[in-house]
Design goal:
The structure is a homodimer of 363-residue chains.
Chain A lengths: L6 E4 L3 H13 L3 E4 L3 H10 L1 E6 L3 E4 L2 E3 L2 H5 L4 E4 L6 H8 L8 E4 L6 H11 L7 E5 L4 E7 L2 E7 L3 E6 L4 H11 L3 E3 L4 H5 L3 H4 L1 H6 L1 H4 L14 H20 L7 H9 L6 H6 L16 H4 L2 H15 L4 H14 L3 H4 L13 H10 L3
Parallel strand pairs in A: 1-2, 1-6, 2-5, 3-10, 6-7, 7-8, 11-12
Antiparallel strand pairs in A: 3-4, 8-11, 9-10
Helix pairs in contact in A: 4-5, 15-16
């Protein structure tokens, strides 16, 4: 297969550098964009990214730049690999430079990433015929020890991608599969959006571990953090997500079943399951409250799920309690800044109208 | 002063035995009621209660019994010293045996204890002209190592009592002062009810320490449990209580100021204050989630405060978040079982009507 698909990675963090390096090692032409001069200069100096771990080699880049126009020009796929809280700003940055036919994949999109991105492009007057898409998670477990170096610890066996509108998903998935055959086409963007399990496994356990976070104890996020009561709560929180998935007619696995399939751990409760999962050994609990587990996963995970619940009449009381508790503990107004229906420009839509919108792109 | 006032203590736990022994040592005639045969038998066998600590001696009792009629007969003051979640059942037990002129003091009443007690007496058809009253806290720090023995660790310098109706408070306070001169007459029962600081300092820190509670770590409730973020949250939770006090026109100190006065500890934040308070040394954190800090202080503390907020239009979002989180973590329906306006028979009252009711007893 010709490796002619041109990739631009937006975001030079752990995931962005891993993807840029890996795609280049595969033989694709790759550009990388980041806002940080230091990151870009380090990569430019060595001409690419050193990758180690599950993938090994040096991936030369066509360009590493802080200039979005140069980065995006000529790309077939613009892959945004950044905290979801940055998507709005990235959409604004990209709006003037995107061209007809380009694909923008939010990798991952958290919840309602494509819907937000589309709304910003429209508001910015972007007239390019762009296909938006999002994944349900990041394909790697990875880290970048320093600019220009990526350590790919593991590569996931599956990754769901879906386009906005859904009729473009097959085209996006086929291009994406050139690099990652494990990509699966989702029904529509609500599938990866509601598949955002971070919203379930991050904020609630983090908040309920507040005292451990602020203690002198080192702790293991999953082994110590998902105690029996916390695990039972998280399972019920997840059942609210499942109810949303049912209401929007997308297939998703409850987190407990997903653990069984993904990790082969079959225990009756979430607490026992994560504690029996050797893959979670050594995952340290955070030592400050204001991490992405709260600052990102509430406004771009729980908030849009709660709002989708309002739209379709599904109660999400546990999600609301956690989102509000998070607001109070870190003193942020996530319902002002986050992905509410109002902020997504969807406040007047019915459930049916939204389901038509994600399929066709028309409203 | 003649020690002729006849006391009956309802409840043979830590506080009840301490009070019964102490009052007897002071020279008052005292009876004690409890539902547990073993407790009553042990006390009957030795004829009274051995008290040590801040008070020392043997307090002989006129009677220790599981028969409520015998216990209450002839009493001037029936002092209920029991978990607030038992008040409803105790009211039902007492309703047929109370006589004109008797005083029932809920010590403490938690929040809306007298209002609940009165409603149960009325519902049970109790026609005796009884004066109800409640205190804001228990006058002791104490424990009972075994039936018949009480250890009074400390005696508080002040205790607020108020009657329902408030016009009877002076009479109640004067009798109460015969034993405890530090008793202060409150404006009306809303003062001790909203003075229930347990609702502020127990459920929220307990829930936010869930992982420590279910860990193998021993922890100190105040020193480890009130971390900076948890302390800041509790201060804001307390400001909701202060807003309720303002709305019902009762004087209360914010918890931070109260700590300064009660313990002489003057630090800018609650977290620093409790950590600098030597009186909190050695107060261990609980090792199970279902303790009175949640099972009692939510349904008889936060729930009625939230409901009083609804009645007077004061928002209590942090109280609601904690009450709901507690419900979900221990899987109880505290808004079904707790002191809601509906369960208190107050659902049709306005703020003004309630304020008249607590003053006059008329509605």
């Amino acid at each position: 297969m010709d490796k002619t698909t041109k990739w631009t990675i937006v975001g030079g963090g752990n995931g962005g550098q891993s993807l840029a390096g890996h795609l280049s090692i595969m033989g694709f032409p790759v550009k990388l964009y980041d806002i940080f001069e230091d990151t870009i200069n380090a990569i430019t100096e060595q001409g690419g990214i050193h990758v180690e771990g599950a993938v090994q080699g040096f991936g030369p880049l066509e360009l590493a730049t802080t200039d979005i126009a140069q980065a995006v020009q000529g790309a077939d796929i613009v892959m945004v690999v950044a905290p979801a809280t940055a998507h709005r700003a990235i959409a604004k940055t990209c709006a003037p430079v995107l061209a007809d036919g380009q694909i923008v994949i939010l990798h991952p999109g958290a919840t309602c990433g494509s819907l937000e991105f589309k709304q910003v492009l429209t508001a910015q007057g972007c007239s390019a015929k762009v296909t938006l898409a999002e994944t349900n998670t990041l394909i790697y477990a990875c880290r970048s020890p320093k600019p220009g170096y990526a350590n790919i610890i593991g590569i996931k066996d599956d990754l769901v991608v879906a386009s906005l509108p859904a009729k473009d998903t097959a085209r996006v998935a086929n291009l994406f599969k050139e690099a990652f055959p494990q990509v699966i086409a989702g029904k529509n963007v609500l599938q990866p959006s509601l598949g955002n399990a971070n919203a379930i496994v991050h904020p609630a356990p983090s908040l309920l571990n507040t005292s451990l976070i602020e203690s002198e104890h080192q702790w293991s996020y999953y082994y110590d953090g998902i105690t029996p009561s916390i695990g039972a709560f998280v399972e019920k929180l997840d059942s609210e997500r499942m109810a949303l998935a049912d209401a929007f007619e997308v297939d998703l696995l409850p987190i407990l079943k997903w653990y069984k399939i993904a990790y082969g751990v079959d225990r009756p409760t979430l607490s026992e399951t994560v504690r029996a999962n050797p893959a979670y050994d050594g995952i340290a609990g955070q030592k400050e409250l204001k991490t992405r587990y709260i600052m990102e996963d509430i406004p771009t995970g729980l908030v849009p799920m709660i709002e989708l619940g309002k739209l379709c009449g599904i109660p999400t009381p546990r999600m609301e309690v956690i989102a509000r508790l998070g607001e109070y503990l870190v003193e942020e107004d996530f319902f002002a800044t986050g992905r509410t229906l109002k902020n997504l420009g969807l406040e007047d839509m019915s459930r049916t109208e939204l389901m038509i919108f994600v399929e066709t792109g028309d409203r």
